[in-house]
Give the backbone structure.
Amino acid sequence: MTSGTWRVLALPPLDIALLRALVDPLGGAAELTVPETRDAAGLHAALADADVVIGDFTGALALDEAAVAAAPKLAFVQMPQVGVDGVDLKALTEAGVPVANTAGANARAVAEWAVGATFALCRQLAWADRRVRAGDWPQNEVLARGTREIHALRIGIVGYGAIGVRAAELFTALGADVAYWTRTPREQAVAAYLPLDELVAASDVIVLAVPLTADTAGLFDAARIARMKPRALLVNVARGGLVDEDALAAALDSGALGGAALDVFAAEPAPADSPLRRHDNVLLSPHVAGATAEAQSSIIGKVIDNVAAAVRGEPVSGVVNGLDPVIRRR
């Protein structure tokens, strides 16, 4: 390795050939490294010489305060996803390390999952599938459980970033009445803005598409879940930490809520004894709402472009912690 070669540490648990493709376009300007072991010791050892880190989308190799302290040369962190809850933004910002995400790269995929999950809940698709596979033919039972058409529903979207905007567009195209909440209302939006608790109380379907932060953790606690309309549906494509899962399970058990579709959980995988795993009115998904071929191609393209920009001294895009987008080696 020459003195001018950038060391790019890739943390995602992917095939090494795929990871090398992230730096191959740079030729000898960058060298790919991976941790020898997927634990804190392996991570810290690998960070010692890293100039650039491509974060772990699973969260298993988190860039916490201790990891940041173990990375004296670190100049840039690129997350291969929208969420940045797998890094300590405060520690990285204090260390002067810009952090970028791939905002918008999988927005369409996640928004389509939210719409598809709403369809599945409204028409009892997963429940009916399980019954038919078991040998039943529950035509009358499906209707008795309650079936609805999306155009007749009020959709409330919590969070109006790229995913929220796309979801609003798709639900609106289906004829639904769509409203949204975000901390800063948008001047131009296809949906109407409502204060959060008013949105919760008025919506037949709540779609969570807001980032997980210190301010939004537990946003849907027992009190807010209790404000939801009777038999309302909750669709979470954001982060599990937004929702009190025990309160959600209790609301489903009591019949206060009509169902939930969850692509994310507070702990992933969801614990084997989680009541949500066994609930007939819950659609479960293993954090794959954004996992389409199109979205993955877009994410990889954004990661490659940003790593290349960092190495070439050009501004990177998507910096989320307010630091200079021109990356400088240490």
